Each structure stands twice: as C-alpha cells, then as structure tokens.
C-alpha cells in the first residue's frame, strides 16, 4: 500500500515532529509532503524518507520568514499531488489536515490542534498591541477567511485522532467532528533520571511564540527569586530578552542530550501557557523532576497535581510564583514521577497508531 505522510513544515523537532518521527519509524515505506523542509532540522528517521516540499522551498531564505506566508498555505497544501497514494496520514496543527486524498483513498488526520491564530488566539498573535491597529484589522479579515476555509475543508479527513481530550473538544467545537485521543509519544528510554540532586533553578523548554506565555515564567521567577533557564527559539526571543532583567539565561536551541541534562538538573520545569497537551512536562517527569503548569488544557491530563507537579489555577505571574515556591519546598518522589511519565511512552503511541492505520488500510477502496 502506498502511504503519504503530510506535515505542515519541517523546521525543527518539536512535539508535532516527534509524533511524525514515530509514524516514520512504523511506516518506512511512506513518503512525506510538507510546505517547507529545512534539511538537517529534524531527526534521521524523518530525513531518510522521501520528502516533497511545496513551492515555498524555492524562495531564498524562506526558513527565516515562512510564517509570514500563512495566507498562501491553503493554496499550497491543495497543490500536493497525492493521487498515487492509497492512504494519507496528516500530522496537522495548521493546514495539513486539508490535504486532498484521491477518491477511494483514506485520510487519517492526527490533529495537534485546530489553528490557534485563526480560531481562539487571534489577539495573542495579531492583536493591535502586537502588530499595530491597521495591520491587526487586516489580519482579522484574513484569519476570518482562513477559519472559514479550515472549517469547510475539515471533511477531507475520514477520521480524526488527537493528543488530548482538551483538543478533542476543540475539534468538536470548530469542525463538528469526533476525535479519538492517542496521547503523543515521550521517549522515556532517552529521558531518564539520575541520582544527582536538583539544582535551585527553573527551566522552560519552549518555542518562543506568544501563546506559550514565556514572559509569565520570566516574571514569576523574578518574583520568586529563582534563576531561570530558557531553551528554545522563535519570533518572541528578542522581546523576551529585552523584558528579562537578570537571572535569566537564554540558550537558544540545544541538542537533545543538553536538554536532558537540564531537565535532570533543574529543580522544576515550567509550563505557563495553556497547552493542547505538552510533551515538555512529560519529558521532565520522565527525568524524575516535577512540573509547575497552568491548570488548563492538556496539563490537566499530563500532570498529576501533588504527585508529579503543581497546577496553578490563576494565570498571573504572582500565582505562578507561588506555585514555583510550593514546588521548590516539597519533597518529591522521583520514582513516582517517573512511573507516571512511563504511561506515555513511544511504544504505546506507536502501537495505538498502528492499530488505527491498520483499520484504515482495511477500508481503502
């Protein structure tokens, strides 16, 4: 059977790419279609499959500004020629779910989230305070058009799978579709504890984009008097660096080994934003370290309050600072935290997805 994997873009190994990585390992015969591929930015398991990129790939320096091409994405994803394939599996947080399979083929979508900026987080990305009043007004028109297209094309996938009950609710609300929950994979064989005691600093591992609310972590650590290390890059980095007053280290992108070392050393890992699920908290927990997370979204499914971390009900920096102080003064059971994370391992994810893929294969016309 000929299988196409459609992914929005390949520019780094974030949560969506870790889902794609397991799919690539389980489906070595597949071919990948993506809007943009930055060679060397993703794992060898992904890179070794044939990768077909959209016309964006031909633009000079596109890796630096591809997000600004968002209005073109619907046109580009619909240009993918998938007529050779019997099964399309999309890994989508933007437009991949709208790829068009041929008649008689099946389309299984692992939807990480409906587009945040087109639906319920417009102001965080394109509000007047962020891009100016005139530009925001223009983007509101463009995002309304994109949301209409997103809803209109939601029927192109025959079955939806997603990463949490929280996102399943969003899929139901925006697409009027039901979704099966398969929690995303955490590499618990790689992220493992050590016997070394934690050091008195907090850690954020995140793309530096508005909805992650990394600024709240910076303010909370300043209030709590705790040093903070921030791993990651993105369009918000310059603004966040200007806002940080000291005691904050920005590392940029690091190797997996370096990130694992920081998980093991940090007293606590922070997740101040409302996440669809959040791989980072589980990677930290796999290393036996507690998490302080906002008590919304996927954190309610990945963090066991009081056992593997602290859930903060209020989204203010002051409340988050209280959560950090609470976590720093507790005696945590690293083995219990680790056992919780093991429930979300890569083998479990691969097996559950393989069963769904086999069910779709049986339905191919």
Provide a compact summary of the structure.
39% of the residues lie in helices and 17% in strands. The chain is an alpha/beta fold and 365 residues long.
Specify the structural class.
alpha/beta
Order of helices and strands: EHEHEHEEHHHHEHEEHEHEHEHEHEHHH
Extract low-pLDDT stretches.
Answer: none
Nearest-integer average pLDDT:
94
Tally of individual domains: 2
Strand content: 15-25%
Shape: globular
Here the CATH topology of the largest domain equals Rossmann fold
- Lateral arrangement of strands in the main beta sheet: 3-2-1-4-5-6-7
Rg measurement, Å: 20 Å
Number of helices: 16
Largest sheet, described in full?
7 strands, parallel
- The CATH top-level class label of the largest domain: Alpha Beta
Molecular structure report:
With 365 residues, the chain is an alpha/beta fold. The chain has two domains: 3-185 and 346-360, Rossmann fold, CATH 3.40.50.2000; 199-342, Rossmann fold (3-Layer(aba) Sandwich). 39% of the residues lie in helices and 17% in strands. It has helices at residues 15-26, 44-47, 73-77, 116-119, 122-126, 128-131, 133-152, 165-175, 214-224, 237-243, 256-265, 279-286, 299-302, 317-329, 334-342, 346-361; strands spanning 3-7, 31-34, 51-53, 87-92, 106-111, 159-162, 179-181, 199-205, 228-231, 248-252, 266-271, 291-294, 309-312. The strands form two sheets. It has a seven-stranded parallel beta sheet with strand order 3-2-1-4-5-6-7, sandwiched between helices. It has a six-stranded parallel beta sheet with strand order 10-9-8-11-12-13, sandwiched between helices. Strand 6, helix 8 and strand 7 form a beta-alpha-beta unit. Helix 9 (214-224) packs across helix 14 (317-329) and helix 12 packs across helix 15. The longest helix has 20 residues, at 133-152. The relative contact order is 0.12.
